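Hello,

Our lab assistant flagged a job as stuck in the queue for most of the afternoon. It eventually completed. Since we weren't sure the result was trustworthy after the delay, we are filing this so someone can double-check. Below is the sequence as submitted and the structure that was eventually returned. Let us know if re-running is recommended.
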Amino acid sequence: MKVKAFTGIMLTLFLVVTLFAAIPIGHAGWDDEIHIAVVGPQGWIQWDGIWVGCVLARDLINLGPNGIDDGGDGDDGIVIGGFNYKVVLKAVDSHAVPEPEPAAGWAELFAALEPPFSADFVIGGFRTECVAPMRLNFLQYANAKYLAAQKVPIWFIAGASTDELIDCGGTGACGGTCVRCNYDLGRYMFRITPMSSTWLFKQFAGFMRMWVLPFKLGPLYGGNVIGTDPGPLVDPINMPGVRLYRDVLSTQIPLYENPIETYLVMEDLTWTISMGLAVSGSPLTPYPPAPDVDSVLGPNAIVVGYDRTHALTPQFDPVFQAIDTEEAKLIVHIYSAVTGVDFIKTWRERGTKAVPVGINVESQMMEFWDSSGGKCEYESFLASLGTRTNISPNAKPLSTEELWDLYEAKSGDILTAFWGAPMPSTAPIYTMWGAYDAIIGMNETLPALGTTWNTNVDTLIAAEESTNRLGVLGMFNFSDLIAPGDGKGHDVNVMGDAVTPNWPSGQTRSHIPQWQNGKLEVVFPRDQRFSRRYLVPPWMYSLAETDVANAAGFGPDGTVSGYDMGMLGAAWLTIYGVVGWNIEVDMDNNGVINIFDASRIAKDWGKNATPQ
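-- returned structure --
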């Protein structure tokens, strides 16, 4: 009888333990919680974007359709298997400011992964010098948990672009730890934003090669047209070939007798290395390289100088002196931190007669226009979008424009609560979009997995790899890293037509905005409702606004004449989306070609100017 009683007690305990293992444990009205460690460079704007994006997504999910935090009513939080999971965030400083201290960053992240918080997911990560060593520790930690049959966390990068953090392309730069080189180890990390350094560069390299060089700078400084750009883009990093985009109103890209002098300036950090090589050519070639060295910018450019400036204390005057001496007309600038502000201010204050095109994260801030006194005008760079660009109007629960407005309305309060001191509201930057979408995506992925989502990481990883959803930056999925169709994608989808204005597959892509009159206007792609024409600074060419056509079609010819009015006449009274509409003669950027555009050309009629 004692044996039977003991057996019955043990069986009862077993059933109770099994039952409670299957049913989430409640937390103050909620059935359970999903814990997310939010990691980033606290003190820099990249952190602001990551944290505010996560808080906005958390609140949208936790409040549910009723807008009331009352877990348990069936529609609050992430609803999985009929249970309400509350999203809970924990801030983790990656210790990237002012100098990277990855050991301290990992110590904070490790504490968030362990009890009592026990993070299920990690979101964020900016500056490769911190993320790379933290990533290696994280992968080893996650793999040890997997081998011990314990709960395994997953990290979604939102901020760091260096290729080998997810996929080194088979170069070995990852030390055998990326998804391509070691899938079993690298699979615990995904990248939400931005795309890899290689593909980031190809985005704005395409803009320079296919528009700025042949149609804006070439006619001014290139001399005679001697042929056409043979294309496609040279690919020194062994990525798949890409197709050149031909503008909807042109049939070929002109090749000039004099390549445009181009100068490279970028912060001396790991993530910029592949970009520098892609522009300048072979890493074995002394700088500046010989004219015949392949560059992704194509034959209309020649690199005449290359400077890598200190990430915190750069000296820009010698750089701009060299730019002036070489008479460069195109500057490729790449900056992720605060020194990008000093770069663009110096450019404007010196009146440098060269257009800057590249990456400048600090210049993405809408507040920068006022704080710099408009010194960033005419700068163009890679960004997720321009000012309130409604890329994805059908995204749920908020469109791109609605999320932009919500960020501007709420970011001050959120950052004030975080820092414990008054903070102003700002406009979003790129880290926000990825951080927000990572959590919103969970609300779509996890419910389909049922209550086993946090006990079977193989199923969770497979579900993430098959992501195909409409996010705030357009359709989002992960690219196939190892072989097309393998389903093992962990990086932002950029395969296929990587430099075209629109990917036929509809995946998200970056845009090139330019500062114009206090707004960031998207100047590439050129065929969207929100697109605007790219402008050359007037101190380089005083008729840049109205001299838009020459005998061959696009491009200035030194005078405002019948060619310009003829181009406008061909588009007369057309509106965006109608055959014949031409963005180059939409002088007031309102989507219709009419008398107001004609009046601007008329005011300069017959004027001549020499490019400086």
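-- support follow-up --
The delay was a queue issue, not a problem with the job. The result is valid. Residues 227 and 255 are 5 Å apart (CA to CA). The two ends are 103 Å apart (CA to CA).
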